[in-house]
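## tool: complex_structure
## caller: assistant
## args:
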Amino acid sequence: MAAGSSSEYIKHHLTNLAFGQHPDGSWGFAHSASEAAAMGFMKIHVDSLAWSIGLGILFLLLFRMAAKRATSGVPGGLQNFVEVVVEFVDSQVRDGFHGRSKMIAPLSLTVFCWIFLMNLMDLIPVDWIPHLFYLSGVEYMKIVPTTDPNITLGMSLSVFALIIICSIKVKGLGGFVIGDLALHPFNHPNIFVKMLLIPVNLILETINLIAKPISLGLRLFGNMYAGEMIFILIALLPWFIQWTLSVPWAIFHILVITLQAFVFMVLTIVYLSAAYEDHDVDH
Amino acid sequence: MDINMTILGQAVAFAIFVAFCMKFVWPPLTTAMRERTEKIAQGLQSADQAEKDLELAKEKAAETLREAKQQAAALVEQANKRANQMVEEAKDQARAEGERLKEAAQAEVEQELNRAKENLRAQVATLSVAGAEKILGKSVDQSAHNEMLEQLASEL
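## result:
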């Protein structure tokens, strides 16, 4: 393959199917990367969002089916599997989260399963589904939603919003701003020193707070993007040696996708747990 | 990095999915699991209880058996004692009866003897008178020699 076509191939594989407002005001699909770039914020990555929502619905349907048929008697195959996952997530929540919340466990389950499914799309050979869509007239198709920073940041920012809401709900607005942001991590009994330390604390803690969703989203995105990139690079090799690299990488990637889903879930639990904790009690 | 409205779409989808999971997926599953846990705990507990009951029943059975054996032994002993007693009593009775019979027989013999003696004495008197008569050739006046005759008879 020539260098030009290789880079085109890679670019093509990394371009989302975007639907949005063209600079001239009309709405429609972007037919090239530059058209998509011209749309700016006013566009939606249809492929990412569709696969993401589709996989989320798949997860919910599967678990809803098991939940509907759930009995306290002898469980069937599906229920067994679902219960193993639920038990696993529940134990993680119980280990990491000491507050009382009805939302945190289902949230963790959704995060873990959903991200796992989205990551799992990475194991489908990179050309299969995009090529099918290409044949039916859709030019761009990125099937791994977690390689799109919009998806991962969308989730991590939702978690961030939850952190803020929970903090304010538990400690009150004043308690959150003063206790968590202003008097933490440095505090001093002397009022003068305390006043001096407050700006330092505010800067440190605000950065700390904002770093949470960014690192959460970008970690997942980075891992999956890199994995996808390597699959694409492997796909550039002659077909008869591709398997010598793609098979080991795919097997290794099974670990990565599970681990990344797990990390996202655990960090969500940890962040929310911190939001529920009162620092005044600690000190 | 290309940040756009997808981020909002994903956030909305995320919120809806979490809400759905929280309402329709998590509660039934955890309820079923908790119920099963309780069921198993109950089953184990009742198994323990049954084992204890069995142990207790076994002990009770052994106790009852031991008591029954003791009672049976006591009964047999009592019966033996009673039998011995009865045999002793029977022996005593038999001995007493024998004694009595012997005495009665002795008394009868004595009586017979006395009667025979009486008879003999009377006959001796008569015979001696007859003899004397014959010897003397005359009749003996019984009243005259009565004293002598009686003396003779008593010497017999």
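## assistant note: Chain A touches chain B through 54 residues (CB under 8 Å). Residues 191-235 of chain A form the longest helix (45 residues). Handing back to user.
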